Structure formats: structure tokens, C-alpha cells
């Protein structure tokens, strides 16, 4: 169950990154260039892998088409992984870190949690619709409204807030391969957490 959650995290991060590239503005273009170039740090196959992802020798329209296809397909994969995750969770049960018997506190899922979840989803959708319809430019980077230009690098390339941890890791390690390894290990360490459980 836990490891499928880690795979889900990777899939959501990939979907977010590929969606960030789709507007094809300055920040999108250079973000795609920087992140895909990180794969060139992989010994022996890195450069070939980067050119394969790009569909050429630089980030271009072929890259955009591939990212669009992956951005479209990945939500279906995420939905399938969520179903598998829930099936495993139903099979094994969720964790009980306190170790106390909680059978006495159980209540039926329907109607109590169903109503609570529907209310939460409704509030979230209303907030999202308000943000998208009335304040569409609130969270966007102004540089991303400039069309992509490979000859003009923005002075400060910084990722969106949900990738700031990766940016900090990459900036803190001067070696390219070391930074990529630290970034991958910072996420893969989540897969090791169940092994640290002592009971």
C-alpha cells in the first residue's frame, strides 16, 4: 500500500511537471530544458535518453507533443493506481500507530463520511472554480506569458512551489550527478520508511 503511494507521488509529480511545460512560455520552456537536462547526468545513457525525450537535439515542438500525450495519459494511470491503492488498503487495513483497540469507536462510512466527503469536495471545487474563473493570473509566473524563446534565458529560473524542495536539493549540491542522485533518493527514501517500522 505504502509503495503504491510512493509511485502515485512520482506519477503526480510527472503530471504536474508536464502540465507546467504545456503553456510553452519562457518559464515552461526553460523549466523543461533544465529538468530534462538533469537526465544527462546518468552515465553512458544520459545523453541518448535526453535526446529521446526531446525528440531531437533540443526542447522543441516534438517535446511539447510528447509531454502533451503523457500529460493526457498519466491521469488515467493515476486513477488506476488510486484504485489499486484503495484495494490494497481495503485488504490490509490502515495503520493503527497507537496500538489501541479502536473497534468501539467505529461508525458506518455511509452516510456520515459520505456526506462529509461530498461537502469537502464541494468546497474544494468552489474554491478552485473561484480561483480559475475570477483570478486566473493570480498564481502564474509573469515570465510564462512571454512566448518561449530559446535565445533569451530568463534571469531567474525558479520552479513552482510544489517543486521547491527539488530546486533546493539541486542548488545545494554543486555536482550534477550528485544533485540528481540526492533528488531521486530524497523521494525514494519514502519507500524505505515501512522497513524502519520496528513492530
Automatic annotation (TrEMBL):
Required co-factors: heme b
Gene Ontology MF: a single term: oxidoreductase activity
CDD domains membership: cytochrome_b_C (cd00290)
Subcellular locations according to the entry: Mitochondrion inner membrane
Domain annotation Cytochrome b/b6 C-terminal region profile: ranges: 99-199
Membrane-spanning ranges: 6-22, 34-55, 67-89, 118-135, 177-196
Membrane topology classification: Multi-pass membrane protein
Pfam family, one: Cytochrom_B_C
Cofactor: how and how many bound: Binds 2 heme groups non-covalently.
GO CC terms, sorted: mitochondrial inner membrane
Origin superkingdom: Eukaryota
Keyword list, A-Z: Electron transport, Heme, Iron, Membrane, Metal-binding, Mitochondrion, Mitochondrion inner membrane, Respiratory chain, Transmembrane, Transmembrane helix, Transport, Ubiquinone
SUPFAM superfamilies: a domain/subunit of cytochrome bc1 complex (Ubiquinol-cytochrome c reductase), Transmembrane di-heme cytochromes
Entry-linked InterPro entries: Cyt_b/b6_C, Cyt_b/b6_C_sf, Cyt_b/b6_N, Cytb/b6-like_sf, Cytochrome_b_C_euk/bac, Di-haem_cyt_TM
Domain Cytochrome b/b6 N-terminal region profile: 1-98
Keyword NAD: no
Example GO BP: mitochondrial electron transport, ubiquinol to cytochrome c
Description of how the protein assembles with itself and partners: The cytochrome bc1 complex contains 11 subunits: 3 respiratory subunits (MT-CYB, CYC1 and UQCRFS1), 2 core proteins (UQCRC1 and UQCRC2) and 6 low-molecular weight proteins (UQCRH/QCR6, UQCRB/QCR7, UQCRQ/QCR8, UQCR10/QCR9, UQCR11/QCR10 and a cleavage product of UQCRFS1). This cytochrome bc1 complex then forms a dimer.
Family (UniProt): Belongs to the cytochrome b family.
Cited PANTHER family: CYTOCHROME B (PTHR19271:SF16)
Function description: Component of the ubiquinol-cytochrome c reductase complex (complex III or cytochrome b-c1 complex) that is part of the mitochondrial respiratory chain. The b-c1 complex mediates electron transfer from ubiquinol to cytochrome c. Contributes to the generation of a proton gradient across the mitochondrial membrane that is then used for ATP synthesis.
UniProt-recorded name of the protein: Cytochrome b
Amino acid at each position: 500500500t505504502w509503495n503504491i503511494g510512493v509511485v502515485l507521488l512520482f506519477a503526480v509529480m510527472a503530471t504536474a511537471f508536464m502540465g507546467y511545460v504545456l503553456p510553452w512560455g519562457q518559464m515552461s520552456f526553460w523549466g523543461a530544458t533544465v529538468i530534462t537536462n538533469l537526465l544527462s547526468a546518468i552515465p553512458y545513457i544520459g545523453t541518448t535518453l535526453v535526446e529521446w525525450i526531446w525528440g531531437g537535439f533540443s526542447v522543441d515542438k516534438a517535446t511539447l507533443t510528447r509531454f502533451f500525450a503523457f500529460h493526457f495519459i498519466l491521469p488515467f494511470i493515476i486513477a488506476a493506481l488510486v484504485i489499486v491503492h484503495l484495494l490494497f488498503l481495503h485488504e490490509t487495513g490502515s495503520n493503527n500507530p497507537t496500538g489501541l483497540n479502536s473497534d468501539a469507536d467505529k461508525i458506518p462510512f455511509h452516510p456520515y463520511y459520505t456526506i462529509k466527503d461530498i461537502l469537502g469536495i464541494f468546497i474544494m471545487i468552489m474554491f478552485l472554480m473561484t480561483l480559475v474563473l475570477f483570478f486566473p493570473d493570480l498564481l502564474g509566473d509573469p515570465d510564462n506569458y512571454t512566448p518561449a524563446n530559446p535565445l533569451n534565458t530568463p534571469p531567474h529560473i525558479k520552479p513552482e512551489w510544489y517543486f521547491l524542495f527539488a530546486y533546493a536539493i539541486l542548488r545545494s549540491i554543486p555536482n550534477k550527478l550528485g544533485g540528481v542522485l540526492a533528488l531521486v533518493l530524497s523521494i525514494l527514501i519514502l519507500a524505505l520508511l515501512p522497513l524502519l517500522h520496528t513492530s
